[in-house]
Amino acid sequence: MKLTTAQFKTDFLAEIKTLYATDLSDTSAFGQFVALGHLLRRYDGPNWTRTSERYRQDDVKQVYYFSIEFLPGRLLKSNLLNLGLMQPVRQGLQELGLDLENISAAEPDPGLGNGGLGRLAACYMDSMASLGLAGNGNGIRYRYGLFKQVFMNGYQVELPDDWLRNGDVWEIRRENKACLVRFGGNVWMTPQADGSLKPTYEHTDDVLAVPYDTGMVGDHNGVTNTLRLWSAELPPSADQTYYSQAQRDRIDEITKVLYPDDSNSAGQALRLRQEYFFSSAGVQSILRHYSLRHHGVRELGQKIAIHINDTHPTLVIPELMRLLMDDHHCSWDVAWELTREVMSYTNHTIMQEALETWPIDMFKGLLPRLYQIVVEIDRHYRADKTPIFGEALVNRTAPLGNGQVRMAYLAVIGSHSVNGVAPLHTELLKTDVLRDLYAVYPERFNNKTNGIATRRWVQIANEPLAALIDQKLGTEWRHEPSQLKLLGAYATEPAFLKQLTAVKTKNKQALAKYIQSELGLTLRTDAIFDVQIKRLHAYKRQLLHVFEIIREYLAIKEHPAQVEPPRVHIFGAKAAPSYHYAKSIIKLINALADLVNHDPDIGDRLKVAFIPNYGVSLGELIIPAADVSEQISTASKEASGTSNMKLMANGALSLATRDGANIDIIQAAGEANEYPFGLSAKAVYGYYERGDYHAADFYQADPELKRVLDTLIDGTIPGVSTEGREIYDSLLRYNDEFFVLADYESYIQQQRQISHDFQDQRQWQQKALANIAAAGVFSADLAVARYADDIWQMPHTPLKA
Ligand code: Z57
């Protein structure tokens, strides 16, 4: 949209007056943020209305992306960028004596997700709008987001994230679109005059689901889509029903907090209630909207697609069946055909503990009507498939088995498409995790490699880099990230490589400033910034990174004359509050940081910065400053990874196992521009099959490794006697589940290589450039376009590949 600086200033000052009945000098940064937010909503309002109207008039197919997590990050700058208002607003604020950065920092960062899964959903929302695709998000409006992490004495302490305390400027409460969601009670099916069955419910707990909508602004295209998050409330008490405090609390509880587990199933009844709550409300609202324009449900498959992001929303399958049969008079067969046509499912993990199953008794008690439908799905599946695949395979793969409702199997059986998130991951789904279902439905399986929104992760997070790229390529890359490959031509232009170093240094200074003020730690910006930012999980192996730090520490202590480039090891990681081992690793990193950072023999040659409360906003500060991207999961365990892509796009070189999308990153940028190491997935599976992994052999065979491991228990690192012993035992007594010791040597080797290579800055920047130039293929726009083409069969703005 067109907006002059002068017009903006007038509008902004008027907004301040309207909201606060005072003038600018009397407002806080937060107050200014709220005013700007209101103003942007006003500017974007016509787009949002027009987009919805256009979709309705043209009767276009709509996709609904169901996800129990969305991690959108702050929206102020993202909306300014996509509306094309960054320049006049920044300028206007400056003329008013204000600073956009300062105002943006006052925006709360909604932590409505744990990690990769929720952030991916947010990147995809951005891309759907930017592709002009009729895409809607459907999730939960948690009253409290993921906990705020602080460290006390090196231990993680969790504080509530009261992100809504001062309201949310972007959301619109739509009470008129609320739905009732039913839990518990009894249900009977009563035969009707026409021969069909109708349910009668008794003693149910009804919950009102109220939607809050947030506009998802497309990239300079006038499109604004909707992210709809549901909040649980008391049903309208028109009939003056009495609710006890306990009943009220049970309702409030449903959308009160996000479960703080990533890649792990909590297995709690409350989580199942959350899952049904947003699945049911979402499907009801879809059908209600669909029915405004269509008679009957014949065309449902042509007009809507429902995407199931991991197993959490799988209940959309039996819920749609329920609504089609009980409310729309469909037969089982018609309902089932429509359901499969509409549904598609993305799997995000092969970790056993993340694959959700629910005890049948819990499921039946909480969702009696849905349970009847799942029983029927199970019965049909068994009847259809046993003659072809035999009883054993069918028993292994049916929705009901071992006293459990198996959500991933239900999701595969009830969808027409099942995708993994990187080629290796999809392969492992076919050959291992979902092997039996792949035998039944081979045509359903496909790969959709994850992608990232380069708008947020380069254009917003790294303005200096974006400006430099503009100088060389013009601005087309901003809308077509595949154009980044044209940067390859500048690999031999020394002046450009120098500018790239200058950009990196600038970003390192900004991060160093933050670390100085938050941790009181002084960093040299000519050091290697070696970054690992992701959830704390044993399979992600932050521990391997710790061993490198211990090795460097001992090397400086024991051979002070041997000089390597200075290093800063930067961590950001939250542990699930109940994940004891992960918390021990946090304590270990903090204790090691204490030791290293205060040792006068070490000085500024080595520093460890564990930045608390990692999340989207800190990611935007850390990622542009990284030289090295640690992507060191045990091969086969990380389904894709997405921080690997963000770091690559910002010119960090990957120190990476051949796992998930690392494989594709190494391929895209070229082996010579990354630091691959470690066991392959095949080698890991080889160990499983032969059962011959002996971690202790590695310990015995490598004196340096032994020396490093022993520091866990010999008092070298003060303050970790119990944690050190526990971690030591996990490796040597319990045989190192994630092959840390097996990968130690090749990891260290590459770390040494990095120290060597970093000294040739020209060559290093060439490698950084190769990464930036190759990152375009991991654009979320391309990923979403592939979902639209192959899975949802929906039209979108064409993209140049
Ligand atoms: C989560 O963040 C991921 C998978 C899960 O099953 C759950 Br629960 C949470 C992550 C994977 O671990 C990453 O490898 C992947 O990149 C991300 O999902 C997005 O696909």
TrEMBL record:
<dbReference type="GO" id="GO:0004645">
    <property type="term" value="F:1,4-alpha-oligoglucan phosphorylase activity"/>
</dbReference>
<keyword id="KW-0808">Transferase</keyword>
<dbReference type="InterPro" id="IPR000811">
    <property type="entry name" value="Glyco_trans_35"/>
</dbReference>
<keyword id="KW-0663">Pyridoxal phosphate</keyword>
<dbReference type="InterPro" id="IPR011833">
    <property type="entry name" value="Glycg_phsphrylas"/>
</dbReference>
<protein>
    <recommendedName>
        <fullName>Alpha-1,4 glucan phosphorylase</fullName>
        <ecNumber>2.4.1.1</ecNumber>
    </recommendedName>
</protein>
<dbReference type="Pfam" id="PF00343">
    <property type="entry name" value="Phosphorylase"/>
</dbReference>
<keyword id="KW-0328">Glycosyltransferase</keyword>
<comment type="function">
    <text>Allosteric enzyme that catalyzes the rate-limiting step in glycogen catabolism, the phosphorolytic cleavage of glycogen to produce glucose-1-phosphate, and plays a central role in maintaining cellular and organismal glucose homeostasis.</text>
</comment>
<keyword id="KW-0119">Carbohydrate metabolism</keyword>
<comment type="similarity">
    <text>Belongs to the glycogen phosphorylase family.</text>
</comment>
